Amino acid sequence: MTETSSDLGTAAAASATLRAEAEGALRRLVGRDDAQLRDDQWRAIEALVVRHSRALVVQRTGWGKSAVYFVATALLRARGSGPTVIISPLLALMRDQIAAATRAGVRAATVNSANVTEWDEVHAAIARGEIDVLLCSPERLNNPSFRDDVLPKLAADAGLVVVDEAHCISDWGHDFRPDYRRIRTLLEDLPAGIPVLATTATANSRVTADVAEQLSVSRHPAGSGTADGPSEVLVLRGELDRESLHLGVLSLPDPAARVAWLASSLPQLGGSGIVYCLTVSQAEEVAAQLRRAGLKVAAYTGKTDPTEREALEDDLKHNRVTALIATSALGMGFDKPDLAFVVHVGAPSSPIAYYQQVGRAGRGVDRAVVALLPGTEDQAIWDWFGSQAFPPEDQVRTTLNALATDRPTSVAALETAVDLRRGRLEAMLKVLDVDGVVRRVTGGWIATGKAWHYDTERYARVARARADEQQTMLDYQSLTTCRMAFLRQELDDPELTAQWACGRCDNCNGLTLPPAPASEAVTATRDELDRVGVEIVPRRQWPTGVDRLGVSLKGRIPAADQAKPGRAVARLDGLGWSGALRELFESRDADGRYIDGETPLPLRGAATRVLDEWDDLWGSQGLTRTLAVDAVVGVVSTTRPQLLQHLAPGLARYLQLPFSGWITPRPELHEPARHDVNSAQRLAGVAHRLVADQDAATQVDGRAVLLVDDYTDSGWTLTVAARLLTQAGATEVRPFVLGVR
Questions:
Q1: Is 245-383+471-528 CATH 3.40.50.620?
Q2: What is the mean pLDDT of residues 693-703?
Q3: Which class is domain 534-740?
Q4: I want to staple 692 with a disulfide (CB 3.0 to 4.6 A). Which of 154, 171, 594, 697 is the partner?
């Protein structure tokens, strides 16, 4: 049938009426009477509301992607549709979105790890039709009760499904999450006619194509009855230039120079902002140093309590702090329009991740400074994160063989069968769950019986892509041409033209970063970073299931067998002494063997300073300071025997105490033990392997012992060694190590 001009006119009028209604919802959302929808915002809203389509919106941070789904929700709800389900990755994102929804007259709620006590009421409110928008984390999609009882009904009745930060779906995205891959299954099972919106600011062409392909999968595409087949996906990509961002790179020689630069430069930048660090330890150390320098800053990491995170976000939004010193835990979805700067102490491993983080700045101001301070330690940190990739096939097969199909197995029980750390084991199970070969149920995990193929080619391909991204970040640091043009090119910006330059970055002469700090300031900061001493918290509980590995240990460790709190010179993933420790523990010769030798002179001084400043190591008799320990025992190292043979007796001489022997491997188990295993496996290996030598077994009775090792990771070597010594009669054991991993 041919459309008449009258039909077209009627359609145009209806579209204009709907757009006017949409812009009314937008104005309530943003609180401005002059707000108007961008053309692509309207195209997406119209596709969702009128045609019930699937759409992927790839637009820069601050463009207004959340407005698309909140306005679409308001329109769909007004037409009798069910609630919108938004799958959103971060608590900060959820909090901001709930506040935005309320402004638009949209009733929003969330279920996540921070509001467990509210879940039942939220589910009941959904059933009563009192919720317009439900935000849930991707991890919730595989909570057994939510997945089996709540989600099917919610999905069947949904008016709109939104996948926020959709690059997480893709193997190629900088922030791939196994839980996000479940969304593909969710989309396959949606009834016909439910619109789907995916949004992200950080997707190159490869990620965009991958996400669009996953969105197109549907068992029941709209308009096709019940036959399987692809759904058409509307892809809207915009240019990635941000006119407020002024990019720059400043190479400084060491951590002390970078922290000194921050101390002097952050007040000059004006306003408030974010300083990103690559590790939790770095963030905490930088925050501590800047507070000592008089700046109002706070650390914000994955270890920060959820309630404290919310308070810190509020402090930054209201300029009560100059900066949050953060890891990537403060990222997607945090919204502060007047954020004046983003500084990176150390480079992210991907240009996509970098663009996503710098996009926090300059949303509502004309100028924002974006500075990168790369570090020599960046590559080592990238390598460590890279080592957490999907495990080798033999470890996966071992896990699958350990799972039954008729009864659940807990992660703790699995740890006794597979030599993977808990974090890697849980991440692997999530991937296998998405692949359909395991399933999370109440009480643990079961095998489904489905055949499984280890996709060696895929994992290798992703690893190569990660290596290429790291090289791209190194190229960015040494760039002499426009930095924004480089990032736009790496993200396949469809609007980028040849010879384009931003005119705002340091290479375009549009930004001059504050210069390197004066030598006096660097020296003072270096002295501050020279602080030594990190507490080692003793283990209190044996891991579940270790008794199934032939070790008769379970439950709480008896108080008499526990080590006392110990000390280390520093952590290996921080600043200050961390560099010297990493060099000591990671240096290898041409044959790949660890380099061994006496304790380096600077670390000797650092070790004795820790002992001198360790209050619990000392008592007093009148005005005389006396030691609270009576003997020193060392732990034999099979990888660095010379180091320990020098360090442990040397500290005994320094303290003028007897050296009373060694905790040593059994002769038949002298090969180096693996550290890259889970807690139960690590403890079992240590417990089978270690014994007290004749001197340690006979000379510690009635004595308080200082136990010396090179470094600690899981803590089980120190825990087992302390138990051996207390069972030999030691009254207490205080561990000391050079480094903490």
A1: no
A2: 94
A3: alpha beta
A4: 697
The secondary structure of the chain in percent helix, strand, coil, rounded to multiples of 5, reads 45, 15, 40
Class of domain 388-458: mainly alpha
Indicate the SS3 state at residue 81. Answer: coil
CA proximity to 558, closest of 716, 696, 706, 719 = 719
- Which is more confident, 689 or 274? 274
Q: What is the pLDDT of residues 561-599, one digit of tens each?
A: 999 999 999 988 777 888 888 888 888 777 777 888 999
Which is it for the CA torsion 367, 368, 369, 372, positive or negative? negative
Asked, colleague to colleague, whether 388-458 and 534-740 share their fold, the answer is no
Map residue 54 onto helix, strand or coil.
strand
Domain at 19-237, CATH class: alpha beta
Among the listed residues 639, 652, 636, 660, the one whose alpha carbon sits nearest the alpha carbon of residue 717:
636
**What pLDDT does residue 227 have?**
37
Amino acid at the residue 601: L
Report the predicted TM-score, pTM, of the whole model to 2 decimal places: 0.76
> Across residues 92-118, what is the average pLDDT?
69
Segments making up each domain of the chain, as ranges? 19-237, 245-383+471-528, 388-458, 534-740
Angle at 711 between CA 650 and CA 411, to 5 degrees: 155
Q: Are strands 704-712 and 732-740 parallel, antiparallel or unpaired?
A: parallel
Amino acid 143 reads N
Which tokens sit at 324? 């949050």
Give the residue carrying structure tokens 């009192």: 130
CA angle 366, 370, 371 (to 5 degrees): 150
At 375, is the secondary structure helix, strand, or coil?
coil
Range from 94-103, 257-266, 341-350 carrying the lowest mean pLDDT: 94-103
Helix axis angle, 5-30 relative to 65-78, nearest 10°? 110
Phi/psi of residue 219, nearest 5 degrees: -75, -25
Confidence of residue 670 (pLDDT cuts 50, 70, 90): low
User: Which of 161, 234, 224 is CA-nearest to residue 196?
Assistant: 161
Phi and psi torsions of 209, nearest 5°: -65, -40
Angle 212-214-218 from CA coordinates, rounded to 5°: 115
Q: Cα torsion for 302, 542, 677, 580, to the nearest 10°?
A: 60
Residue 305's contacts (CB-CB under 8 Å, 6 or more residues apart) are none
Q: Report the range of poorest mean pLDDT among 149-158, 351-360, 500-509, 589-598.
A: 149-158
Q: How far apart are CA 374 and CA 253, in angstroms?
A: 9
What is the separation of C-alpha 713 from the centre of its chain, rounded to a whole number of angstroms? 19
Q: Are 563 and 722 in contact (CB under 8 A)?
A: yes
Torsion angle in degrees (nearest 10) through CA of 417, 420, 421, 425: -90
- CA 203 vs CA 56, 163, 192, 546, 562: distances in Å: 11, 14, 28, 44, 50
Q: Which residues 6+ apart lie within 8 Å of 310 measured at CB?
A: 91, 95
Q: Which two tokens stand for residue 464?
A: 């190569």
Rounded CA-CA distance 354/340 in Å is: 17
| DSSP letters spanning 671-731 | SPPP-SS-HHHHHHHHHHHEEE-HHHHHH-TT-EEEEEEEEESSSHHHHHHHHHHHHTT-S
Query: How far is CA 573 from each of CA 95, 167, 277, rounded to the nearest angstrom?
Result: 31, 28, 11
Asked if residues 317 and 435 have their Cβ atoms less than 8 Å apart, the reply is: no
Two tokens at 266? 């952050």
The yes-or-no verdict on residue 225 having pLDDT over 50 is no
Full 3-state SS string of 417-472? CCCCCHHHHHHHHHHHHHCCCEEEECCEEEECCCCCCCCHHHHHHHHHHHHHHHHH
Confirm if 339 and 363 have CB atoms less than 8 A apart: yes
